[in-house]
User: Fold this.
Amino acid sequence: MIKLQPRFLKRYAAIAKLLIKYGRGDMVKQSAVIYDAKDLPDQDSGKPEEFAHDLEALGPTFIKLGQLLSTRPDILPPQFLEPLQNLQDDVDPIPVEDIRETIESELGVRISNAFAEFEDNPLAAASLSQVHRAKLRSGKKVVIKVLRPSVRQQVVDDLAAIKEIALVFDRNTEFGIRYGLLGIAQSLEQTMVRELDLRVEYQSTLHIRQTLADFKRILVPEVFDDFSSASVLTMEHIAGSKITDISPTVLNELDRSGLASELFDAYLRQVLVEGHFHADPHPGNLILTHDHTIALIDCGMVVQVDPQVRGQMINLLLAVSEGRGADAAIAAERLGTKRNEFDDMTFRKEISRIVAEHQQKSVKRLSVGQILMSLQSVAGDTGLEVPHELRMLAKTLMNLDNVVETLDPEFDPAAALQEKASDVIQRHAREDISLGRLFRSALETTDLIQQLPGRINRITELICENKIEIKADAVDEEHLVSGLQNIANRVTIGVLLASMIIGAALMMRIETGWQLWGYPGIAMTFFLMSAIAGAFLIFRIVLTDHRR
Assistant:
């Protein structure tokens, strides 16, 4: 039984009510969570469209939890995902006096001295922050994003309660053991910590602005360091309309195909090349400006992708876009973490089926994001834990797909991905041969050469003492032995050639009457023999391996 902290009792009760209302009362019973029994909802009485509203009523932490759960089709039924994906964070504004006090305290200057104009009426009010228009002394129009004064403590308390109850569920419920709810709570904590420090958003906006600088029709707002802090972020004000609010008349005036293509290319650059992408491209964060460019705003939700994970993501996306289900399953396995009960045969079979079905249904327009969401559902059912980066990529591609479809219904994201694959691979190849990577490889090679004599010495001692053992689990032992003999032959010839080269080098210092090209004839003969034998050995190795 969980030992409840008195200050979290209301949150425990709220979570218990939510679980019971939406059909997970079994988790409350299995974990023996104590809650106030009065006014509890009936089991499984909540409708999917009500779920987002109930989370929103619980405050900013639960709103972010809902957004995180929208990327988990392995946990929630499909009918619950769409309301969460459309979850909008819109609340009543707080008094402007509190906003003014926060700005002046954070910036260390009076608003009238820092800004030529400041609008008291907020442009937008969310559960974490509030946004106001202003104008700098230089005449530049800006917007100021300000964290709500008491929001940090509320989030800290909510996170503590969620993590504690998630730990209890992981230890005491079948659902928690299977899906690792504490891991979800920890991902939520990482997301919230970043969003509660506006300096992180400042750096992310700056990074994405630099990444997309050469995209002529993509705009990222300028941010102002002198007017920003952990609780205040000042950025360029970009006037325009949500892409989904644009009238058909205005759409017909646009280069719709060009805009859709450039927007999609900009995200491919972020995801596959830079490994740092804007992960929330819903229509409210993509603005069509008056000069027909697309502005990316609100870089609070940004995902970093490790280079190794990025490489596997490229393999996965290309396999999905080209309809190679088996290869997509293999790439997903390499990305994920296999649990003890992982059923690889079922996973590969289901992924191949899903990719094939989408190819047949969507010959004209394949939704890569939708396939990735389906992949996560199969992964959860078969025992594969996919990384957070892949979940966020799936959500990003789904949102992006809706936006580009609004711009150009004929645009095919899968075809665009295949078209850009060559450029992406070339960029990765250039990264792989960068000076830094070559230097690291040189250091590793030097370390290998230094340790090689000692390792060879240990191996030969084991061979002489008949202590060396080779453990192998092979179906064809004869083929294994033959392979080992080939390896031994190659190593022996290599050692002999190396000995001849070393001997020839030593003989170079001995003066002889017979010379070739001004060098001792015997030494040069050994060098030539070694070169010819080495070239022949390389030719045989390449030819044999190619045939195999």
Observations:
- The mean pLDDT is 81.
- Residues 6-89+162-189 form one domain.
- The two ends are 61 Å apart (CA to CA).
- The chain is about 60% helix and 10% strand.
